[in-house]
Structures are given as structure tokens and as C-alpha cells.
Amino acid sequence: MQSEQDLASAPTNGKKLRVVFCHPDLGIGGAERLIVDAAAELASRGHAVHIFTAHHDPTRCFPETIDGTFPVHVHGSFLPRHIAGRLHAVCAYLRCLWAALCIVISVWLRWIPAVDAIITDQVSAVHPILRLLPAKILFYCHFPDLLLAQRDSWLRSLYRTPIDWVEQVTTGMADSIVVNSRFTAATFASTFPSLAQLGIRPAVLYPAVALDSPAAAAGGAGESTSGAGLQEAQKLGIDLSSRFFLSINRYERKKEITLAIFALGLLTRSSGQAGTAAGSQQGTQDGAAALALSKAQRPSSLLQVGVMLGCGRMWSICKS
């Protein structure tokens, strides 16, 4: 397993690589932004990039996935996302496994060139199928999925047991594993102790941020970029003269948005000055996700939490 330093200094000897990404759902989200940024950067450096996914909606996606920056292959969208509102995890696995199988078949039938590296994330269950190819596999672990699953009944716990086992075993089948922070690395080690015993420890690879801006591209000075940023902040109701706490998440239970509000409340109390801090939650609320939201995670309820903590007037809720 490669270390953090190895990943940073690994040379390609000038060779243009053929890289395939296998991602469950190429929609709009943090994981998708990371995958798209990585694919776009590789493509800009002359590497051949393909993304295989089980779902891609051209009307709700990042522009790089439809402007020809790299080809996107959709396989598995015909499979259901759930069965009668249940078995979401099983269906997600099946959809990803189908996409992975299509990668293997595409290489075997030479529909795409032979692959040097495969980058996967979220669903590690695809690794046994992808092992049919000689390519190296890099798995990006955003967070162990088994820690995000609910187990509020014995039946749900029974349902999750084989899924959790598959996640642990197949995660260890990657040639390299990277995580998004040292916190996630520590969580990974405690969640998958059997992998740690085998010496499998992920390296930290922070999500990249594109620093290019229209102002910078036009040759503008730093003041122009700051001015553009200030205008965006004003649109969102952000007062940059105060200490600001920004949360960018979907309105979803597992995002624990209330923690951000609690943190702002603690910051306000510790400073002793009510006007020295402010916070904002920016995020999307899909139709399907809205139906699944617990009452405590709805925007109106989140504002009530802020009022209870004495920071309601400093906390704004925005939906995009």
C-alpha cells in the first residue's frame, strides 16, 4: 500500500496514462465534484480518461460531463434504485457491479483502449470484477459506508451484516487507498481493524480546489478576484466582516447539519460577543431526498435549533 509521500512523488515518466473512473451516480455533489475535477485535470494533462457510471442526467450534472472534456459511459440505469422503497444499498451495489462489468467487457472487446489505472469511490464491491483487468486500482474512501447506515432494528442490522462484510473485504482489494483527511484515516483504521492488521493504511489525499477564476483568467489583479468573491458573498447574505461559519451540504440526516449550528452557538458563547460570528447553510434538497428528511433536518427546523442556541439571527438557510 502506497504512503502519502509515495503518492505525492509517484512519477509517470512522461507516459500518457489510460484512466477509467467507476462512480455510482454522476450527479451533483461533493463526491461527484471530486471525481469530475480529477478526471478533468488528468484529461488536461493529456491522459486518456473515461468515466463509467450507473446514472447520469444531462440536465442535472456538472458541465464537464457533457461538454466533451472526457467521455461518460452510462451502464446500469435500467436497474432500480430501490425495491418498494427498500433495499437501497443492495440496488446500489447491483448498479455499480453492472457498470464495473461493462468496463471489463469494453476493454476485452476493445471498445476502449487497455486501461492502466482504475479509480473507484463509494462502492468498493466493484473491485473483484475490476480485478479481471491488469490495471491498478485506486479507491477513494470518502467515509466508511457502514458507519452511515441506520441499524434501528434487528432486521436492518441483519440486512447490513453481509453488506458491511463485503465492504471491508473488497476495500482491501485496491492497490492504493486514499482518504480525504487524517480524521477519515483514523476512522478508517478503527472501522476496518482487520485491514489495519494486514498493514493496509490509507494515505491522505485532500480534495483539490480549482483556483482559476474568470477574473484571474482575464489577467485581473487580486482586487478583482476579491471583488467578485465579495459580490457572491453579498448575494448569499454573508457578512465577511465577522467570523463566518459556512456549511455546504445537502439537507440530509447523515450530513449532521445541526453540528454546524451547535458549533456556531459555542463560538458565540466563548467569544462573549453576539455579533462577532455568523453562519450559513447552503445546499440542495432533491424531491426524493425531501421526502426522506427527518423533521429535525428540514430547513425550518434547523432555524429553530439556531434560535434555541441563541444564534438564530446569525444563521441563514439557503436552498439551491
- CATH topology group of the largest domain: Rossmann fold
The CATH superfamily of the largest domain is: Glycogen Phosphorylase B
Strand count: 10
Large-scale geometry? globular
What is the helix/strand order?
HEHEEHEHEHEHHEHHEHEHHE
Describe the main β-sheet briefly. Answer: 7 strands, parallel
Assign a percent range to the helix content: 40-55%
Integer average pLDDT: 79
How much of the sequence lies in strands comes to: 15-25%
Annotation field: number of helices: 12
Brief descriptors of the model:
Rossmann fold, 7-stranded parallel β-sheet, 2 domains, single chain, 3-stranded parallel β-sheet, alpha/beta, 12 helices, about 325 residues
Could you explain how this protein is built, in words?
The chain has a seven-stranded parallel sheet, with helices on both faces. It has a three-stranded parallel sheet with strand order 8-9-10, with helices on one face. The protein has helices spanning 4-9, 30-44, 88-108, 127-130, 154-171, 182-191, 193-197, 214-217, 222-235, 257-271, 287-292, 299-308; strands spanning 18-23, 48-53, 72-74, 117-121, 136-141, 176-179, 203-204, 243-248, 277-283, 315-319. Helix content is 40%, strand content 16%. It is globular and about 60 Å long. The chain has 320 residues and is of the alpha/beta class. It is built from twelve helices and ten strands. The longest helix has 21 residues, at 88-108. Residues 213-225, 274-279 and 286-297 have low confidence and may be disordered. It has two domains: 17-204, Rossmann fold (3-Layer(aba) Sandwich); 232-319, no CATH class.
